[in-house]
């Protein structure tokens, strides 16, 4: 053993001869301890190679001689063994903190005596003992409820020396110590345990240099006998003769809001609903009672476990009956609250209070939250330490409106057809038009994850351009760096045309005049629109006349009382209207937009408007009245009427003798013009000639 140095193991025998010796050695003698202490002149090895017992080298007790292979033998002399019997008692078995609220005092007494092996030992024995107050709390690293000093509340441990009388005296040695109980004791149910430990004084050991010192003056403690003792002191409680308190604390709670601290309105399923936007500050109304026949609840506490989005602020509307409540946050965590309800929380006590809470921004994105509450007491309590969970769902009150408008209600088309390959800038294709949508948050709370779903009439059924979208611009006080429209440019603007704000409607009208077509007066058109046929093109799945492009504009968080404008700038593709809608007086084209919030906890107010559409009328500058088919019966009636009228005219002329020929013409006279004296006479003469 010990790398060849050697060791000797000594075992004690069991009092019962049938059980042999104890498994655990009573003593281990190691050679390395001798080598390290340089007790011998040389280091030894194979210590324990030979052992000789039963010798009494100093004429008192049996000794032990241990040999080795190092030409060294070591003699171990025996010391007397003392069996110490110790007790610790207190002058009071129960202390009353009500009668003595400030440091009640009593005494604790330690007494000891001994017997020895062999019985011939009859010397005084110096002992050292230690007493600790409230050992159970000290082992749990809690402050003791007692102290050995009236001025030092931290002196919960004391060590003293005591000399035991020779065993032949038959008397015990005792020492009395004063004990003081703290005035602010919280735990009044569990007894205060005094723990006594003792051992032979460390001063009573022989000097290692005095190898021949008599060992009868240096006894050792019998390790087979416990070297400790305990006693306890109870604190008086108003809990009946058995001193066991059986409380019956009852609790109920419900969520409330700031306005008059009313409870949350339940939904159709009875779940309390917090409506953000109308109800900002929230809390918990807690009612706690300990009705008779419930006995005092000692160390009564209420623990509140809040979700991370809620934090404790304080108390409001506290109503107490024979009780008190004090709430604090635990470990600097405002979501973990512990409230003291009194010590004790007496019979028929009642507490009603509101736990005021505040929330952070994450509450707005939550569908709900749960608050756990727990009643704790050191008394016996039915349902002790059970958690009760109070649930509420969260809804965000949103008042969002979308309003659409256009830059031009009516736009003319005309001129000549221009192929797509000849279009190099927007004005080559047609006139500008802008559809704008204004999104407003008129509610009392910000709304995040706001999208606008745009449907844009891009082409007609055969793929020809309708309203050629150039870009989508987002502006307004509610716009942020996150605000963007995800326009599919490969579908909407493959020609990469750029919006040129200086080239607007007047430029287009001038180009039309140069082409030889008289432009339509826009004011007149708006007053008296053409009466010829019209067509409506909408972004409807059932509409086969227009094919729309759908894309999203992400607005992010729309703060309260803020607006965002989405401007969709496009070109009316003139050639498409000339080719496909020639002779059509009006083509009305619609876009639409819908506000979408990608959250399930949003509830819209009745005044919210989340869908709108914008239209522009495209008017032809050359309105050709449509050819109307004449019905057959009208033709027949008109023909008959014409025939009858002709017959009547012929009969009338016949009656007047129009068809009779006169043979005798009479004498003809040559007409001559004579010069008249006045204009009137001349006019009379001309009348006679005709």
From TrEMBL:
Transmembrane segments: 632-654
GO molecular function annotations of the record: integrin binding
Topological relation to the membrane, as annotated: Single-pass type I membrane protein
Domain Integrin alpha first immunoglubulin-like, residue spans: 78-238
GO cellular component: external side of plasma membrane; integrin complex
Keywords of the record: Cell adhesion, Glycoprotein, Integrin, Membrane, Receptor, Transmembrane, Transmembrane helix
Region (Disordered): 506-529
Gene3D superfamilies according to UniProt: Bicelle-embedded integrin alpha(iib) transmembrane segment, Integrin alpha, N-terminal, Integrin domains. Chain A, domain 2, ntegrin, alpha v. Chain A, domain 3, ntegrin, alpha v. Chain A, domain 4
Main location: membrane
Domain Integrin alpha third immunoglobulin-like: residue ranges: 401-616
GO biological-process terms attached to the record: cell adhesion mediated by integrin; cell-cell adhesion; cell-matrix adhesion; integrin-mediated signaling pathway
Domain Integrin alpha second immunoglobulin-like: 239-394
Placement of FG-GAP repeats on the sequence: 33-93
Localization: Membrane
Similarity field: Belongs to the integrin alpha chain family.
Protein name in UniProt: Uncharacterized protein
């Amino acid at each position: 053993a010990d790398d060849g140095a050697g060791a000797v193991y000594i075992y004690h025998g069991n009092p019962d001869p049938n059980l042999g010796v104890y498994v655990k050695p009573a003593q281990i003698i190691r050679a390395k301890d001798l080598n390290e202490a340089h007790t011998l002149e040389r280091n030894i090895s194979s210590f324990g190679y030979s052992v000789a017992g039963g010798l009494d080298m100093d004429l008192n007790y049996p000794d032990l001689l241990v040999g080795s292979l190092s030409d060294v033998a070591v003699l171990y002399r025996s010391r007397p063994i003392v069996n110490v019997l110790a007790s610790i008692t207190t002058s009071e078995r129960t202390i009353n903190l009500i009668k003595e609220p400030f440091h009640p005092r009593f005494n604790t007494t330690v007494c000891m005596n001994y017997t020895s092996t062999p019985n011939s030992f009859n010397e005084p024995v110096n002992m050292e003992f230690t007493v600790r107050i409230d050992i159970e709390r000290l082992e749990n690293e809690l402050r003791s409820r007692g102290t050995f000093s009236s001025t030092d509340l931290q002196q919960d441990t004391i060590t003293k020396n005591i000399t035991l009388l020779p065993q032949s005296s038959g008397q015990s040695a005792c020492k009395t110590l004063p004990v003081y109980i703290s005035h602010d004791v919280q735990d009044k149910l569990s007894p205060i345990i005094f723990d006594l430990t003792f051992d032979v004084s460390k001063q009573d050991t022989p000097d290692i240099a005095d190898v021949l010192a008599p060992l009868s003056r240096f006894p050792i403690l019998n390790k087979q006998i416990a070297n400790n003792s305990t006693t306890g002191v109870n604190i008086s409680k108003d809990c009946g003769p058995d001193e066991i308190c059986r409380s019956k604390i009852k609790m109920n709670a419900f969520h409330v809001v700031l306005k008059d601290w009313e409870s949350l309105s339940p939904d159709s399923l009875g779940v309390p609903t917090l409506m953000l936007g109308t109800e900002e500050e929230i809390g918990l109304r807690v009612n706690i009672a300990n009705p008779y026949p419930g006995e005092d609840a000692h160390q009564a506490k209420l623990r509140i476990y809040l979700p991370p989005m809620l934090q404790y602020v304080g108390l409001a509307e506290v109503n107490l009956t024979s009780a008190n409540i004090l709430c604090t946050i635990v470990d600097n965590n405002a979501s973990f609250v512990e409230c003291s309800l009194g010590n004790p929380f007496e019979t028929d006590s009642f507490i009603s209070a509101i736990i005021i809470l505040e929330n952070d921004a994450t509450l707005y994105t939550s569908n709900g939250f749960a608050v756990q509450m727990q009643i704790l007491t050191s008394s016996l309590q039915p349902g002790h330490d059970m958690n009760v969970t109070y649930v509420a769902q969260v809804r965000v009150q949103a008042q969002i409106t979308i309003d659409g408008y256009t830059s031009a209600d009516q736009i003319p088309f005309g001129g000549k057809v221009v192929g797509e390959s000849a279009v190099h800038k927007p004005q080559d294709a047609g006139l500008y038009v802008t559809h704008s949508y204004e999104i407003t948050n008129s509610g009392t709370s910000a709304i995040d994850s706001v999208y606008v779903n745009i449907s844009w009439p891009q082409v007609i059924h055969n793929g020809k351009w309708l309203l050629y979208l150039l870009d989508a611009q987002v502006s307004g006080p509610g716009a942020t760096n996150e605000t963007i429209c995800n326009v599919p440019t490969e579908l909407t603007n493959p020609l990469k045309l750029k919006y040129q704000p200086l080239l607007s409607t007047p430029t287009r009208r001038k180009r039309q005049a140069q082409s030889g077509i008289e432009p339509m007066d826009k004011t007149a058109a708006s007053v008296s629109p053409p009466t010829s046929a019209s067509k409506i093109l909408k972004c409807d799945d059932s509409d086969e006349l227009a094919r729309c492009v759908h894309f999203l504009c992400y607005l992010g968080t729309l703060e309260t009382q803020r607006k965002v404008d989405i401007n969709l700038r496009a070109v009316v593709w003139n050639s498409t209207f000339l080719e496909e809608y020639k002779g059509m007086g009006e083509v009305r084209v619609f876009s639409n937009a819908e506000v979408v919030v990608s959250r399930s906890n949003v509830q819209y107010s009745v005044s919210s408007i989340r869908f709108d559409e914008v239209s522009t009328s495209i008017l032809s500058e050359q309105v050709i009245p449509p050819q109307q088919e004449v019905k057959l019966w009208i033709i027949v009636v008109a023909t008959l009427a014409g025939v009858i009228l002709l017959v009547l005219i012929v009969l009338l002329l016949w009656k007047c003798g129009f068809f009779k020929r006169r043979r005798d013409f009479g004498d003809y006279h040559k007409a001559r013009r004579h010069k008249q004296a006045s204009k009137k006479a001349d006019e009379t003469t001309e009348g006679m000639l005709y």
